[in-house]
Amino acid sequence: MRVHDLSGETFLDAFYAPGRPVIIAGEIAAWPALDLWNAAYLGKAIGDAPVEYQGGRAASADFERYKDDHVRQMPFDRFIAMITAEAGNDAYLTAYNSATNAAALAPLQADVGRLEKFLVQTAEDAGGMMWIGPAGTFTALHHDLTNNLLVQVTGRKRVILAAATDLPKLYNDKHVFSRITDVTDPAIDLAEYCNLRDIRFFDVTLMPGEMLFIPIGWWHQVEALDFSISITYTHFKWKNDFFESYPF
Q1: What is the C-alpha to C-alpha distance for residues 157 and 47, in angstroms, rounded to an integer?
Q2: Distance between CA atoms of 190 and 186, rounded to whole angstroms?
Q3: What is the distance of C-alpha 83 from the center of its chain?
Q4: How far is it, in rounded angstroms, from Cα 18 to Cα 54?
Q5: For 74-97, how does the pLDDT look when each residue is reduced to its tens digit (9 = 90+)?
Q6: Cα separation of 69 and 199, whole Å?
Q7: From CA 145, how far away is CA 242, in angstroms rounded?
Q8: 120-126, long-range: CB < 8 A, 24+ apart
Q9: CA 64 distance to own-chain centroid
Q10: Dist CA 9 CA 5 (whole Å)
């Protein structure tokens, strides 16, 4: 479902509280980032400041589970040149690198507005975790321990979701990951993973300027269709600390 002009109260009642995904359009139409953020602009804005990213992902089937093994550093302008030269999943600046990159990417905050109908934000700190990567970056099937708001600024992303209630059918393996990496893989053995036949998957393309609310526990996998810049927010105005009681 795509909606426009959604109030905070309606979002809470119709989507956040019952845990229903929704695409929200129009909320970031006035953000300068929507027009400015491309590879050339970012490279000039951040320059050669060192950033952390996830690298060497193409050589490992478990790049999502063992993120620390894939931590790399590089001057930002070199990183941008690298990911715009070739599509693929090998290099990706992700939310996992967010804390380390906060100072380096701080100049971009001037291009980002506020979403105070939905989030707790201050004039000094908008929050949010950045994702920057080429076409072809892929986040394997998993569920998160928070409600997430995925804001798509540049490029498109394909997101495939399944309801949290389908947990028993999605072969949860370790922590928040499934034994199945990609539900669109034609090589999946449906004799072994027969429960997949009973799951309703929601396949959406998130366009620049749109936001996707992903409720806690909802399974999802994400693929960038273009050079892509996204921001994930978790600081909602309503309770979102369920991860604190998750049985690790």
Answers
A1: 26
A2: 10
A3: 18
A4: 34
A5: 999 999 999 999 999 999 999 999
A6: 33
A7: 7
A8: 120/235, 120/236, 120/237, 121/235
A9: 13
A10: 12
User: Of 241, 242, 51, whose CA–CA distance to 133 is shortest?
Assistant: 51
Q: Assess whether pLDDT exceeds 80 at residue 5.
A: yes
Q: Which two tokens stand for residue 37?
A: 């953020």
What gap in Å lies between CA 122 and CA 170, rounded to an integer?
Answer: 38
In sign, the C-alpha dihedral spanning 180, 155, 104, 110 is negative
User: Which position has the token pair 């939310």?
Assistant: 95
pTM, rounded to two decimals: 0.95
Measure the N-to-C terminal CA separation of the chain; round to a whole number of Å.
33
**Helix ranges restricted to H, the chain:** 8-11, 33-36, 39-46, 76-85, 98-105
In terms of Cα–Cα distance, which of 119, 168, 165, 159 is closest to 141? 159
* Contacts of residue 62, Cβ cutoff 8 Å, sequence gap at least 6: none
